[in-house]
């Protein structure tokens, strides 16, 4: 690169990707199929190899020394709590309020911790003529994540099972904001949109989706000073159910449209590659556009 800096890509936590690993008990290390948007290459890689060593969330102390507290403390803690919650949901056990809080925290950070989102924060500050430190975007990310937890907590949630032969896919930006438009969808929907939907695949057979409610919309439009306190109520209503094939396909297309570069799956066959060729390979990302199925 021109500035001689190592290029850092957004990564998916390996604990999250383990649920999408190839179901082969003979393998010593869990591996996942990774598909590249640019090259179209499908490659079986270890879930830890889907990461980079250091990501883009470093902050700096008063002495200018780098501090990886976001990665080592905040993100790792949230990931571990999320994985425990996902296991409870996959086992069809009743989740506690703490489990819902863990899920909301994970999704909130996934919505905000992408290179594109950090760049949007910098562009907004630039547009307002403000000056900022090089780690300002990362600090804002942590602050906004707390607010997003409260928004998600006030949405209607659905834990949906996929019992079709089309497993859920995931990507390097697994949590998505979108809204329905007939049979299609629009990605990158503003948090103030009354039709906002937030969804995140938890496993090839499990999806969490939450829908805007009057309560969640008010939480966005009138942020209160107590937003930093742990919310006492999660989900205006959280339901469970199964999805038909068309809805599974729609959610996979939403995931594809939002992917920055990589898509992950626990399988690879001709049908999947044809699906990706038509909708993923060679397409720009992240895609913020209206898509008609």
How would you describe this structure to a colleague?
With 293 residues, this protein is an alpha+beta fold. The chain has one domain. 36% of the residues lie in helices and 20% in strands. The chain has 8 helices and 13 strands. α2 crosses α3 and α5 runs antiparallel to α6. The termini are far apart. The N terminus is likely disordered.
Topology readout:
Elements lengths: L13 H4 L13 E6 L5 E5 L12 E2 L5 E2 L1 H22 L6 H16 L2 H13 L8 H18 L2 E6 L8 E2 L4 E6 L2 E4 L9 E7 L2 E6 L2 H8 L15 E6 L2 H14 L3 E4 L4 H10 L10 E2 L2
Parallel strand pairs: 5-11
Antiparallel strand pairs: 1-2, 1-12, 3-4, 5-10, 6-12, 7-8, 7-9, 8-13, 9-10
Helix pairs in contact: 2-3, 3-5, 4-5, 5-6
Short synopsis of the structure:
This protein has 293 residues and is an alpha+beta fold. The chain contains eight helices and 13 strands.
List the defining traits of the structure above.
8 helices; disordered N terminus; alpha+beta; single chain; 36% helix; 293 residues; globular; seven-stranded mixed beta sheet; 13 strands; four-stranded antiparallel beta sheet
Q: Which class do the helix and strand fractions yield?
A: alpha+beta
Cα-to-Cα separation, first versus last residue: 38 Å
Question: What is the overall silhouette?
Answer: globular
Q: What does the largest sheet look like?
A: 7 strands, mixed
> Helix share of residues?
25-40%
Number of structural domains: 1
Q: Please tell me how large the radius of gyration is.
A: 19 Å
How much beta, percentage-wise?
Answer: 15-25%
The total of beta strands comes to 13
Q: Strand order, main sheet: write it out.
A: 11-5-10-9-7-8-13
Summed up, the helix count is 8
Order of SSEs: HEEEEHHHHEEEEEEHEHEHE
Question: pLDDT under 50 segments (min length 5)?
Answer: 1-9
Mean pLDDT: 82
